[in-house]
Specification:
Glycerol-3-phosphate (1)-acyltransferase, 7-stranded mixed β-sheet, globular
Length: about 200
């Protein structure tokens, strides 16, 4: 059992107490057994914590370099094998790391918007999710997470201790469904799916 396994084991009890976050997950049946790209909206620092805790398989997210520079946080992110990425830039090394995750039949997580929302609303997406999908032929699973903005919005210094969180998992988009779409069309399709779940 590694640190990630321990996190998943203790994560749910910790989020329920002492933080008192009432979390509901819908659409678990839509999660593939094998590899998948988890594409979610991004409204709070807490989004990857909830997603990693409540999804059934290990999920490795692109995480900004600045987070790796924080005391303890950097060590923790490395220990659970999150992928360090510079803001606004996906390097060749980042792509290789993402593909390695998918080759292991694990989940690779990405926030297509690239950064946290300032107002809780969906933002324009970047093309990283489409690029990785093209290179891996992995199914893309759209996810909408709601409630984390109320707990810990971008402007807040500390999170609230009581709130409801909803994670809605959509049906996967398989490679056969997007092989004729270019990266812009595929990116728009993913965000449309997320938007429907988020509404």
């Amino acid at each position: 059992m590694d640190l990630y396994d321990i996190l998943k084991f203790v994560g749910k009890p910790l989020l329920k107490f002492p933080f008192h976050y009432n979390t509901k997950v819908e659409g678990k049946e839509n999660l593939p057994q094998g590899k998948a790209i988890i594409a979610a909206n991004h409204i709070s620092y807490l989004d990857p914590i909830f997603i990693c805790t409540y999804l059934k398989k290990k999920t490795h997210f692109f995480t900004k370099t600045e987070c790796f520079g924080l005391p303890f946080c950097g060590w923790f992110l490395k220990a659970i094998k999150q992928i360090e990425i510079e803001e606004d830039k996906i390097s060749k090394k980042n792509l290789e790391e993402a593909l390695q995750v998918l080759q292991k039949n694990e989940y690779f997580g990405i926030f297509p918007e690239g950064t946290r929302s300032y107002d809780g609303k969906l933002q324009k997406a970047r093309k990283g999710v489409a690029l990785i999908a093209r290179l891996s032929s992995a199914p893309i699973v759209p996810i909408a997470i709601k409630g984390t903005y109320d707990i810990y919005p971008r402007k807040a210094n500390f999170p609230k201790l009581y709130s409801n969180v909803l994670i809605k998992i959509g049906k996967p988009i398989f490679s056969k469904d997007y092989e004729k779409k270019d990266k812009n069309e595929l990116t728009n399709l993913v965000m449309q799916k997320i938007a429907r779940l988020y509404s």
